[in-house]
Amino acid sequence: MFSKILIANRGEIALRIQRACREMGIKTVAVHSTADADAMHVRLADEAVCIGPPAARDSYLNVAAILSAATITGAEAIHPGYGFLSENAEFAETVEEHGIAFIGPTAQHIRTMGDKISAKTTMAALGVPLVPGSDGGLPDIATARKVAARVGYPVLIKAAAGGGGRGMKVAENEDALEEAWNVARTEARAAFGNEEVYLEKYLDKPRHIELQILADTHGHVVHFGERDCSLQRRHQKLLEEAGSPALTAAERDSIGRTVTDALKKMGYRGVGTLEFLYQDKQFCFIEMNTRLQVEHPVTELVCDVDLVREQIRIAAGEKLGYKQSDITFRGHAIECRINAEDPETFTPDPGLIKVFHPPGGLGVRTDSALYSGYRVPPYYDSMIAKLIVHAPDRNAAIARMQRALDECVVEGVKTVIPLHRKILADPEFRKGDYTIHWLENFVAHREG
Ligand code: ADP
């Protein structure tokens, strides 16, 4: 086992990883920008190294500075967290070339899954169902027309290098196809420097359901069930639950078997998430994330597993030591992402936190790096905390989350807590009756 790990991240996820390390008796090295000198992840680490100025490209994305920090401090492994360098294949490769373990999959798997076309082609070959659409990239508009006619309108033109919902355009009918094609390619070129696009049937009422998997380096693969992340605004998740209100245990077992078989054949290593659109009882793969996800705690609570500990064990070459049949699903968990944003306009609202009081009590977990007197810097993501609750069933989890939100005090910046309160009180949400379009409608039509 490693004796020292460098955590190449900040905020709540850096603390989350430190917590696992501490419980395993592993020393931690924090890296930070000059804007984060007073951050909690720096204060709580065993050692800290400043890696550059505030802008992420000069600090948290600065591969040379991070590698130097690892070398100087004698860290044996690097945990990338999520975002920043977590899905950067060159980073993973460079880390390993320096004799440091990368706590994540191989660079080759990161690369394959980072390109959406190769991800889909790979998964299809391994027996994972896809959204009907083009076989790979589209060479020209004439081919796009043919594929669209075959799968039926509306269709979605998507960027091969896509991410964050950019480079994605819907065409309702054939007349609109050429414009969607042009706009998607222009956006893709501007955002990713790669104008390759592909086409999928546009699903009108899907849920976003994702499967959490874990693989060791000895050929064992298990899944920890699903998370329902349908509540999204501009393709950004806001509230997640485990399990999905829409899925039966038999459906979970069946899709779980499909994905674990696929990843076993791939020789995958570490944690991973396969994202699906789920409509009319059909699962359609859209992408795979080759890292820990923001919403991993809901899975941890229903499966009683520490996913970060598992990641570290796997990177150190240990065996899983348990089988699929050992994993059970207990109760229901919900996560609310607390962003420092205006709850009406979603404009980020960084600044001084005058008071922070996290909620607590039975079944409540707060993952946050906030403290009273901390100044939220304007340079990074606006998520300042995650509230996660666990209860015997979904109704009890909703009541517990409402109580936790009432207890949570954040003074000094605006947060989306009022929006979460409205969602949790809504009859459709309470019935579990929602799709990926639900939140946008809710936000557009809510009163007061
Ligand atoms: P990105 O990586 O840019 O976030 P994804 O492929 O993961 O792109 O899609 C993001 C979101 O866009 C999905 O969660 C879903 O809400 C929507 N979406 C993607 N593909 C489709 C589709 N074929 N039909 C309907 N909605 C889709």
From TrEMBL:
InterPro entries: ACC_Biotin_Carboxylase, Acetyl_CoA_COase_biotin_COase, ATP-grasp, ATP_grasp_subdomain_1, BC-like_N, Biotin_carboxylation_dom, Biotin_COase_C, CPAse_ATP-bd. It comes from the Bacteria. Signal peptide: none annotated. Residues 1-444 form the Biotin carboxylation domain. Keywords: ATP-binding, Biotin, Fatty acid biosynthesis, Fatty acid metabolism, Ligase, Lipid biosynthesis, Lipid metabolism, Magnesium, Metal-binding, Nucleotide-binding. GO terms for molecular function: biotin carboxylase activity. Residues 120-316 form the ATP-grasp domain. It catalyses: N(6)-biotinyl-L-lysyl-[protein] + hydrogencarbonate + ATP = N(6)-carboxybiotinyl-L-lysyl-[protein] + ADP + phosphate + H(+). Pathway: Lipid metabolism; malonyl-CoA biosynthesis; malonyl-CoA from acetyl-CoA: step 1/1. Pfam families: Biotin_carb_C, Biotin_carb_N, CPSase_L_D2. Its EC number is 6.3.4.14. Acetyl-CoA carboxylase is a heterohexamer of biotin carboxyl carrier protein, biotin carboxylase and the two subunits of carboxyl transferase in a 2:2 complex. This protein is a component of the acetyl coenzyme A carboxylase complex; first, biotin carboxylase catalyzes the carboxylation of the carrier protein and then the transcarboxylase transfers the carboxyl group to form malonyl-CoA. This is Biotin carboxylase. It comes from Candidatus Kirkpatrickella diaphorinae. The gene is accC.
